[in-house]
Amino acid sequence: MHKVEKLPQVDGELGWLETAPESNVRLGARVKGDQEFDIAIIGAGFTGLSVALRFAEINPSARIAVVDALRVGEGSSGRNAGFLIDLPHNVDFSKTGVEHARSEHRLNMFGIERLRGFKDRYSIPFWNDAGKFMAAHEQSNLKGLDNFASMLQQAGFEYELVSGSDLNRRLGTDYYRSAVYTRGNVLVNPAALVRGLVKALPASVSLFESSPVQAIEYGPPHKLQFLGGSISAPIVVQATNSYSEQFGKLTHRIAPIFTYASLTQPLSDDQIRRYFGGVKPWGLTSAHQAGTTVRFTDDRRIFIRNTYDILSDLKATREKLELAWHQHRLSFEARFPFVKEMTFEYTWGGVFALTLNHEPIFKNAGEGVYVLGGCNGVGVVKGTYLGYYMADYISGIDSENLRFVQQHSNPSWIPPEPLLSIGGKHRLTRELGTAKGDV
Ligand SMILES: Cc1cc2nc3c(=O)[nH]c(=O)nc-3n(C[C@H](O)[C@H](O)[C@H](O)COP(=O)(O)OP(=O)(O)OC[C@H]3O[C@@H](n4cnc5c(N)ncnc54)[C@H](O)[C@@H]3O)c2cc1C
C-alpha cells in the first residue's frame, strides 16, 4: 500500500473561481463505498479532464472515473493566469532547433483548437482571442525581448514590435518601454474554462470532487483509497502535475514552484472613461523570467501575478500570501498609479511543476499505470494535448503528434530535498535581483 503524504488545499481567495458563473454548484459527489471502473483518472484539471474526454470518445462503453481532492476549478487549473499560449514558451532554438519549435507550435494550436471546440459547443464564457504582449520596463531587460523577437523571426512566426505612445494607448499605462505582440494567444478565466469542460463529459464518465486519494494499493486491479470509499480499476492515470511524485511511480523529476496572483475589484465606468478609453482586454508576460504577468480582463479587473516560492509541503501559509499581496500592491501601483485606490478583491497562491530541461512527463509506469505532468507553467494547453495523446496511447492509436510527445518527454534528474529547496531559493533570489522594475 503506497500512502499519499502531501495533499492539495485551497491557498487563499480563488478569484477566477469566485467570478466564474455558477461557481457554487457542486459538479461531482465524494467517493463513498467501494466502486469499480475500467479506468480511474486522478486529477480533474485540464490534463485529467482531457484524458477523460478523449478516452470516452475512443472507448464509448468504458466506465471512467475522474477524481479530485478539491472541487473542479479550485486546483491550479483554475488558479493560473489564463493564457492559452500558442508559441513555444522559453524559446531557445540554440538547444532545440527551429523544427522542434514548429512542432510545439502545431501541438499548442491543436490544444487551443480542442478547447475552442468545447468553448463553442458549451458556451463557456470569458474566452478572448486577444493575443499576448511580452514587455519590458527596464532598459536592461530589453535584451529578453530582442532574443524573443529574433527567435520568432528565425522560425517564421509573426510578431509586431510595439513601443512608445502606441503601446501606451493599447495598454492604458506608459510603464513599459517596449513589447513584442503575438496574435495567437487566447485569454480566459481558467476556472470558468475548466469547469465548462465538465459539461462535455459523457454519461460514461463519473466525476468525483473533494475526494483526495489517500493511498494506492497497486495491482492490477489498482485500488485507490478514500475516506469511506475506494475505486478499483485495471488502468490508473495520474494527472496531478505538481503532486505526481506523491504516488510512488515518479521520483526526482519535478520541482513544484509556488506563485501568487491577485485580482482587483472591477474598474468603474468613470475610471474606464478617464483612463482606459478605447483599451481592449489584454494580457502581458514579462521579458524577464522573474517578472510580473499582468492582465486587463474582460470584466474590467486588473490581474497581477508574480513572486516564486519553493514550499516543500506544497501548501501556502497566510504569511506567504501576505508577502505576495504586498509585492502585488507595489507592482500594481507602479503600473497604474492613477487608480491606486483600487483594492484587490482576491489574492491566492498556486503551484506549477517545473522540470529542469522543460520536457514534460508522459510515462508508462507499467501494469496499467500512467503518469502525466511537468507542464512548466504552460499546462492549460500542454495538459490538454498531453491528456489527449495519453488517451490515444493507452488505446493504441498512433500519430505523428503522439510520437513527438513520446520523444520529447524525458525530464532530467532533479536533486532531492533539501538540496532542491536550497538550490532553487538561491536561483530565485538571483533572478529577482536582475528583474528589478519588471517585477
Ligand atoms: C498563478 C499561476 C499562474 C499560471 N499561469 C499559467 C498560464 O497563464 N497559462 C498556463 O498554461 N499555465 C499557467 N500556469 C500553470 C498551470 O496552472 C498548470 O500547468 C496547469 O494547471 C496544469 O494542469 P494539470 O491538470 O496538469 O494540473 P493541475 O491543474 O494541478 O490539476 C491536478 C489536480 O490533481 C489534484 N490532486 C492532487 N493530488 C491529489 C490526490 N491525492 N487525490 C486527488 N486529486 C489530487 C489537484 O487537486 C488538482 O486539481 C500557472 C500556474 C499558477 C499557479
UniProtKB/TrEMBL annotation:
Occurrences of domain FAD dependent oxidoreductase (ranges): 38-392
Keyword annotations from UniProtKB, A to Z: Oxidoreductase
Database matches in Gene3D superfamilies: D-Amino Acid Oxidase, subunit A, domain 2 (3.30.9.10), FAD/NAD(P)-binding domain (3.50.50.60)
One GO cellular component term noted in the UniProt record for this chain: cytoplasm
GO function terms (MF aspect): oxidoreductase activity
Pfam families listed in its UniProt record: DAO (PF01266)
InterPro entries membership: FAD-dep_OxRdtase (IPR006076), FAD/NAD-bd_sf (IPR036188)
Entry-linked PANTHER family: FAD DEPENDENT OXIDOREDUCTASE DOMAIN-CONTAINING PROTEIN, SARCOSINE DEHYDROGENASE-RELATED
Protein name: FAD-binding oxidoreductase
Organism lineage: Bacteria, Pseudomonadati, Pseudomonadota, Betaproteobacteria, Burkholderiales
